[in-house]
Amino acid sequence: RAEFTRAARLGGPSSSESDSEASDSGSDADAPILGDEAEILQVAMETVHRRVLEGFANWCLYVMNSPSLDRERLREYADGVIKNSGRSVSRLFAEALLLRVLESLGELILSAPERLSLLYYHIVAESGLPMPEDDHGPAKYIIDYEQLQDGLPQMMHHANPYVKKKMPDGSWQLGLNFDDINESGIQCREGVVKTFKESASIAVIIDGILCYRVPLMMKIWSLMIAFYIYLGTGYGQDISTLNNGSLLWPEWLRLNFIQYCGIIDGAIWVVLELVYIVYNLWQRGPSLCHRSPGQLSFTLLSEHMLNLAFSLL
Fold it and tell me: Is residue 114 within 8 Å of 195, Cβ to Cβ?
C-alpha cells in the first residue's frame, strides 16, 4: 500500500519552521502568491484539473446507474471536475496528482483507463472527504498496489483468450486481455474478470456477416430489383421476359418473383436475427446483467425480438 498526503496549503505560507528557514536564507520561494499571480494560478490549476480528470468525470456520468456505487457521490465527483471554478488550488492539485500517481504506479494498467477511474473513485471515497469540498485541511489517499495491478498476474499466467487453462485458484478460464481489465472498470467490478469471448474460426465469419448484414441485404435487394426489371425487357426468352406486365403493374413471372423475394427476405432476416441473439448471448455471456458498450441489454434484446417477430410475419 502506498500513501501520500496533500499539503495543507499550496502557494501560501508553510509551517513556522519553514518560514524561519526561508527568512534566514533570504529566499522568497515560500512567499504567498498575491494579486494577479494568485488569479492566474487559480485559472491554470482549474484548467489542468479539468483536462486531467475529464475522463474520470465522463466515467462517473456513464456508470451513474450502477447498483454497486453511490449515485449521488458519482454526480458530486463529476460536478467537482466539470464545475471546479473557485475550488481550493491545493485540492485541485492533489486530485490531479493522484491520478498521475495511479497511472505511474499502474504502468501497463494505463491501457485500461476505465479501470483506473474505478480505482480512483474508491480511493477518493475512502479518503473521508467529499471530492468538491474546499477544506484546506490535509487529506490522505491510500493506493492498494495489489488492487491496482489486478489482472496483470492473470495475464502473465495465461494470456491466450481463445483457450481455457487452469488458473492458480484451480478454475479453468479463458486468457485475459486489456479489454477485459478495462471493461471490468466500466462494469464496476471489484475484481478483474473475463468479460468477452473473442471470436475464432467460424465465429469470425459470423461476426463479419452480422456486422455487415444491412449492406449485404441491400446488395441482395439490388440484384433482386435488377432481375425484376430484366423480366420485362424482352432481352431473354419470350416466355420469361415478355408479357410480364409493367414495373408498376406486374403480371405472371414478375408477380411471382415479388412473392419469392418477400419469402426469401423474411427467411434471411429470421435467420440473421436468431443468429444475432444467440451469438451475442454466447459472446457477451460473461457480461450479462452488467452495463457495457455493445452489451445485449434488455432494450436491445427486445428490439431484435421484435424484428424477429416482424420477419416471421
Answer: no
116, 103 Cβ separation under 8 angstroms: yes
Note the pLDDT tens digit of each residue in 146-205. Answer: 999 999 999 999 999 999 999 888 889 999 999 999 999 999 998 999 999 999 999 999
Give how far the C-alpha of residue 15 lies from the chain's centroid of Cα atoms, to the nearest Å.
Answer: 45
Contact of 14 with 29, CB cutoff 8 Å:
no
- Please provide residue 18's backbone torsions phi and psi, each rounded to the nearest 5 degrees: -65, -40
Q: Could you count the other beta carbons within 10 Å of the beta carbon of residue 182?
A: 22
CA dist list (Å): 34 to 46, 133, 161: 17, 23, 58
CA distance 211 to 99: 37
DSSP per-residue codes, 229-292: HHTTTSSS-HHHHSSSB-SSSB-HHHHHHHHHHHHHHHHHHHHHHHHHHHHHHHHTGGGTTS--
Contact, 96 vs 160, CB < 8 A?
no
Q: What is the pTM of this model?
A: 0.78
Residue 145 to residue 107: CA distance in whole angstroms: 11
Q: What is the rounded CA–CA span in Å between residue 277 and residue 257?
A: 30
Q: Is 141 helix (H, G, I), strand (E, B) or coil?
A: strand
Q: 3-class SS at 90?
A: helix
Q: How far apart are CA 257 and CA 100, in angstroms?
A: 65
3-state secondary structure of 31: coil
